[in-house]
Amino acid sequence: MRSTVPGRGALDKALEIGADRVINVATEADTLAAYSTNKGYFDIQFEASGNERAVRSGLEALKPRSAVVQLGLGGDVSIPQNLVVSKEIEMKGTFRFHEEFGLAVDLINQRRVDLKPLITGTYPINDAVTAFNVAGNRSKSMKVQLTF
Fold this sequence. Notes:
The protein is of the alpha/beta class.
């Protein structure tokens, strides 16, 4: 499924692989804001973009004593500490370390995780420049794979 709306590629892919609903905080801020009423709605936020706007809007939609798992890296992000403290939000950063690679490979080999829907294309090493050009266009690609 390809999106015709700019910036929706990753959101459309999330729907394709099983998400119930997606909200583009850049264009649908009011939709997400509805989840901020009554001190928030969600128990946990997995933030994978590293975008300050996404982090902040997600914090607003979290319930008191909820948690944020920060996966995305987008540079220095300003976080409203008064919101984190007043809602007693637990913040956890996570990154890929060597232990996770073995677990990931095991899950893929056991077919418990299917990554094929996330791969936009597979290119031989001789076409690496093309592969990097495709990978660099985030509106048209998720993940690009090189084969040797």
